Amino acid sequence: MSSYSPSTPLKPDLPLGWVEEIDGLMQPSDIPLTPGATAATRLASVLIPVFHHHDQWHVLYIRRVVSDRDRHSGQVAFPGGRRDDTDENSTATALREADEEISLPPDQVTILGSLTDYQTSSNYLVTPVVGVVPWPYAYVAQPSEVDRIFSIPLKWLADPSNMQLRDREIRTGSLRVDTKVVYFNRYDDELLWGATARMTVAFLHALHHDKLAAI
């Protein structure tokens, strides 16, 4: 089993300055022109799981199951969900959800830190929590929520030729708004886009500025 150690630096030996150079890339919400968090905004967290394998770092993702009840049905995402009253903090939420969705116990995660909160068009304020996870490992998808568990090399994600901004109409409440949305090229036939793609870019930005602990 591969494990994290300080001698295995997480920051890739790649230029990441492009995350600041593309206009409209670093924004804190799906729709930056909306008023922002309100009393009705729901708190949530996701875990950005990273692991070291075959001499390079990878980011772990899930694909959500197809469901008429899920606005994000069938989309690529990070393990995560809504904060419970029993959760001590955002990290506890991310760890609990990862345990529920991919059978990853909290004691198997080395937390590196949290990124800036991200507001989604579905009115969630999401805290992305970054953690090193074991690999290989017997991850098990929770069948009612997760259709697939897969990974993308960090080196591939850090290549700006694999990312683009596209015009897209986003629904927020009863409104439809035209905005710029982050899309990555397909990898292993999976499409990373939207809020999860934005949080991936925020992770790259944190790496570029050494904002995470123990890297």
Written overview of the protein:
This protein is an alpha+beta fold and 215 residues long. The chain has a single domain, classed as Nucleoside Triphosphate Pyrophosphohydrolase, CATH 3.90.79. The strands form 2 sheets. Strands 1, 2, 3, 4, 5, 6, 7 and 8 form an 8-stranded mixed β-sheet that branches. Strands 9-10 form a two-stranded antiparallel sheet. A hairpin with a 4-residue loop joins β6 and β7. The longest helix has 15 residues.
Blueprint of the fold:
Layout: H1 18-21, E1 42-53, E2 56-64, E3 76-77, E4 80-82, H2 90-102, E5 110-114, E6 118-119, E7 124-132, E8 146-153, H3 154-157, E9 163-172, E10 175-184, H4 194-208
Parallel strand pairs: 1-7
Antiparallel strand pairs: 1-2, 1-4, 2-3, 2-8, 5-7, 6-7, 9-10
Shape: globular
| Helical coverage, percent range | 10-25%
> What is the radius of gyration?
16 Å
The first-level CATH class is given as Alpha Beta
CATH topology: Nucleoside Triphosphate Pyrophosphohydrolase
- According to CATH, the homologous superfamily is Nucleoside Triphosphate Pyrophosphohydrolase
Structural class based on helices, strands and sheet pairing: alpha+beta
Q: What's the end-to-end separation, in Å?
A: 20 Å
Percentage of residues in strands: 25-35%
What is the CATH architecture term? Alpha-Beta Complex
Detail the poorly predicted runs. none
Number of DSSP strand runs? 10
Query: Main sheet, how many strands, which sense, barrel?
Result: 8 strands, mixed
Q: Any idea how many domains?
A: 1
The count of helical stretches stands at: 4
